[in-house]
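Supplementary material to the annual report.
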Amino acid sequence: MATDDIFILGITMTKFGKHPDLDTVDLAAEAAMGALKDGGVTMKDIGVLAAGNLMGMGGGIGQMLQKQIGQTGIPVYNVSNACATGATALRTAVMSVKAGECDMGLAVGVEKLAGAGLLAGGSRKSDSETWEPKGRYGAVASVDGRVGTETMPGVFAQVGMEYGHKYGGTSFELFAKISEKNHAHSTLNPLAAYSKKFTLEEIMNDVMIAYPNTRPMCSANCDGAAAAVVVSGAKLKTLGPDQQRRAVKISASILTTDPYEEACQVLPNVNTLTRNAAKQAYEQAGVSPDDLDLVELHDCFATAELVHYDNLMLCPEGGAVDFFNSGASWRDGKTPVNVSGGLESKGHPIAATGIANIWEVCHHLRGEAGNRQIEGATVGLAHVIGLGSACGVHILERSAA
Amino acid sequence: MAAQIPLVEYLSLEPEPHLVAQQCKGCGARYFDRRNACAGCFGTEFESASVATTGEVRAFTIVSLAAPGIPVPFVAALVDCDGTSVRGNIVNTEPDPEHVSLGMKVQLTTYPIGSDSAGTEAIAFGFEPIN
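Predicted assembly:
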């Protein structure tokens, strides 16, 4: 291993789901202490902490966590980057180690969302007594529902429909089949919030949220946390043989935002920034999409998974429908996608997601994924995207040690 | 006739209802909000540009779950108005996949959403199918 490479030394995720008896700090502590134990280190070894919590506490989760698990005076970064918050926390720790400020860092993402409803466009103020233009659009009344939709299921439904308009081949049934795959995968994941198999008919006949996304085709709001310890290659060389064997190389760590394009401020463009991140990641890692043994991508909605097959270049441009219909993204296919069950069944505790998907990939690369193990996995990719927008892509490789 | 006010400032009611974009003088990028600068070329000079009142549905969704007070189902869409993308609802047709389709031709239309205490009527826009 090269001394200037960065590795994941320890990583863990909590069970995703409902944790009524645990607060945000409890969940963060469980994940953080789990990651430290998994890496065989303690807070004393950690030189930087990056922590993300998007919807809950209004900042300061890192320091609140320190006060429960270890106050050592190290720098803390509280990060917030929409659904890419967890990936951003990890990347912050990676950059700090890469910059040589310390040789070990801890990244944590945590969210309490069980029972939450719509996360955007969820409140319409009643119209005021007198019409008065306000805000950047000079609107005299709330525009959600009057000028399109601000709800996430609705926005991402349009993202999938736009792909269908551009390339053809999509249908309600096709998107539902993507959801059927992820729910089938989840039956093997004991940490998933929902691990129930759905038939195609059950998915299509469930409650419609935003056509073509029915309820099981939407990511599940739930509680959860995930954490990772990252270490420099130089430091890893001084650690024990088991730590070296289980370490996972971070071959690429990329973060992008959406570059200006026509329409991107009308309907968010989740495609270009993902493609840009993927291109940079493949180049940095020196791997190609064909090398990937598994992919965890951001299926916040079934309609989103389809477009990211294309954006991550798992298929030729415009070929996402054929790619899915070939069975390639099922766990026994050419490029297994979301063998964890994905956000649709594993759940999407927002800030935890960007580390939990890396945990899933690491789990397989270490050969520790039990009955859902992708045999012989050596290279994997984890992708998240948050609207606004921010995209994180990490490529991970099994340690050569 | 009661006084009228558009729901959003980029909707112009006169002489015929149409949308007005802020167009960057440098690169031609079009925006509907108040601008500080152009996100594409960083230019700071803008001019008003009328947007075509007919277009094609490039993406849509039928929203069945929305905030309390928002009537559902409704169709939210991305409409390509001769090269300018516009967000808006598809109106004056049934909100189901049999009546709304990708590539469908639509035209701008307006409708009142209510009156304030002074009797001024707020006017919203949407897109309706062209028969």
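Chain B has one domain: 4-129.
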